[in-house]
Design brief:
The chain is an all-alpha fold and about 180 residues long. It has 6 helices and no strands. It is globular and about 60 Å long. Pfam families: DUF308 (PF03729).
């Protein structure tokens, strides 16, 4: 009885994760089909998030305790707001900077995915984790090698490929888990 409840819970959890994998795949296709639009859109989203963070810093400054905390949060909030407005006015420069940061993030993500594979290599579907790590490392090297000349279009293409590969690898690994759960039932 407890095994059936655990199996049902795991199937529900994998169902949500499968939905997330499908969303990643769809976003990857959109980014690949419209790379320039997706790249500039990412720059606007980043600028907006920075602007919102600045507003949050300013609105929470009065309750930060003491004049030092108030002054610090106010100054940080002002810097964030100025930076967010500047990035909204100059999305291409923001996109070029974002491209570099994303290259570093992918480098670290790929490295950690490969390390994680070695601890999971005996698990069904773990080869997909290694594949994801290798592809992510290759994407990082592609970003950092071509930076900044191709940032305006490459970022969306590379993010699209990463989303697509991550979605597919997660989907395949989760389907392997589902097959195992169904076979065990």
């Amino acid at each position: 009885m407890a095994t059936d409840a655990l199996s049902t819970t795991l199937k529900r959890g994998t169902g949500l994760a499968i939905a997330w994998a499908v969303i990643l795949i769809i976003c990857g296709f959109i980014s690949l089909c419209l790379p320039s639009l997706a790249g500039i859109s990412m720059a606007y989203v980043l600028a907006t998030l920075i602007l919102v963070a600045g507003v949050i810093h300013l609105t929470t400054a009065p309750v930060s305790g003491g004049f030092g905390g108030y002054l610090w949060r106010t100054l940080v909030g002002i810097v964030y707001i100025i930076g967010g407005i500047w990035l909204l006015m100059h999305p291409v420069i923001g996109l070029i900077s974002f491209t570099f940061v994303l290259g570093i993030i992918f480098l670290i993500e790929g490295f950690f995915a490969i390390i994680h594979f070695f601890s999971m290599r005996k698990t069904a579907g773990s080869g997909w984790l290694l594949f994801d790590g290798v592809v992510t490392l290759l994407l990082a090297l592609l970003i950092l090698d071509r930076w900044p000349s191709s940032a305006a279009w490459a970022i969306a293409t590379i993010v699209g490929v990463n989303l697509l590969i991550s979605g597919i690898t997660r989907l395949m690994a989760l389907l392997a888990v589902r097959r195992f759960l169904n076979a065990a039932a």
